[in-house]
Design goal:
The protein has 313 residues and is an alpha+beta fold. The protein folds into three domains: 30-111; 115-221, no CATH class; 224-309, no CATH class. The chain is 49% helix and 19% strand. It has helices at residues 2-26, 115-121, 128-136, 141-148, 157-166, 170-178, 186-195, 199-207, 214-223, 227-235, 243-252, 256-264, 272-280, 285-293, 301-309, and strands at 29-37, 43-52, 55-64, 78-87, 90-99, 102-111. It has a six-stranded antiparallel β-sheet. A hairpin with a 2-residue loop joins strand 2 (43-52) and strand 3.
């Protein structure tokens, strides 16, 4: 009897395991795809809309037309298409139609069973959602190895996906390092790409005598303190202003035009701190002209700021 119970249990357990495997196989990600024309030559706008329990999610970006093997986007009229996007993380099988290079259809994603294990061996934890995203963004095992070899802090699977989205690669990292930047924080590298910090920007600032750190470079780009804008300030006599003050200029609205108007009113070269204070307290060229029209002349910037602070309009 004990033997029979044991055999019955093993048979039951095997059935449960087979059902689980079948359910796992049935959980193939699927949904709709669309392709439309892109403004970039040689690319198309490829969108995947995944249908899941509780809602849907979409992934949209420009892809090289060469990514769709066997598809002729130049062919006029309607055509049925079937193409496969093969990545280390898995395959995206698509079928549908194109009409004059644009169209739609259905997709099914088949994850590569060995990919999560190989990524885990590199130190990157990959779940089902990440694997799908890594397939779409082409996070290959080779790319993961390259980034790991860059010895970056805060590097994980999510950052690898962000790197591919924002085009952070070894060439970009090495170019930044060649300009004297550490380029060792994954978060800052993504921020560099998002805000437009480039090796050329770092080089331009170094040539102008500055030694900006990475946070300052990001802040400069966020607030628009570009080398081109700095060149405009130089024409108004403001050369090699402290970078933190330049950022404050942008935050508070100290512009070359503002400085030019002050110079026209007889203030040839206010100190950067004075310019910032004037903008903070709304000491405008119009306010100065209004005071003069009332017979109040020869006011220093300090007095003008004090008048504004005390509500003298």
């Amino acid at each position: 009897m004990r033997m029979r119970r044991t055999l019955a249990y093993l048979v039951f357990a095997s059935c449960v395991l087979l059902i689980a495997v079948k359910n796992r196989a049935a959980e193939v990600r699927s949904g709709d795809w669309t392709i439309s024309k892109s403004e970039d030559a040689g690319k198309v706008e490829f969108s995947l809309i995944e249908h899941r329990r509780g809602g849907s999610s979409s992934h949209e970006s420009d892809w090289p037309a060469s990514s769709f093997q066997g598809v002729d986007f130049s062919k006029p009229g309607r055509q049925d298409v079937h193409f496969t996007i093969t990545r280390d993380a898995g395959k995206v099988e698509c079928e549908g139609f194109l009409n004059n290079g644009e169209g739609a259809g259905l997709f099914h994603f088949q994850p590569d069973a060995s990919y999560p294990r190989e990524m885990q061996a590199l130190g990157f934890a990959v779940d089902d959602d990440k694997q799908f995203a890594m397939a779409l963004q082409d996070v290959s095992l080779e790319f993961a190895k390259q980034m790991k070899n860059e010895h970056l802090s805060n590097l994980d699977a999510d950052k690898l996906i962000a790197f591919r989205i924002f085009r952070v690669d070894s060439a970009f990292i090495e170019a930044l390092r060649a300009e004297g930047l550490k380029a060792s924080d994954a978060d800052k590298l993504v921020a560099f790409r998002i805000h437009g910090v480039t090796p050329q920007m770092a080089r331009s600032l170094h040539q102008a005598g500055y030694s900006p750190d990475e946070d300052t470079l990001i802040a400069m780009r966020i607030h628009g303190a570009t080398p081109e804008w700095m060149a405009e300030l130089k024409q108004r006599g403001y050369d090699h202003v402290d970078l933190e003050k330049l950022i404050a200029f942008r935050i508070h609205g100290v512009s070359p035009e503002f400085i030019q108007k002050l110079q026209g009113l007889g203030y040839p070269h206010p100190d950067p701190d004075e310019l910032i204070a004037m903008r903070i307290h709304n000491v405008t060229p119009e306010y100065i002209s209004d005071m003069r029209a009332r017979g109040i002349h020869d006011l220093s910037i300090d007095k003008l700021v004090a008048m504004r602070i005390h509500g003298i309009d």
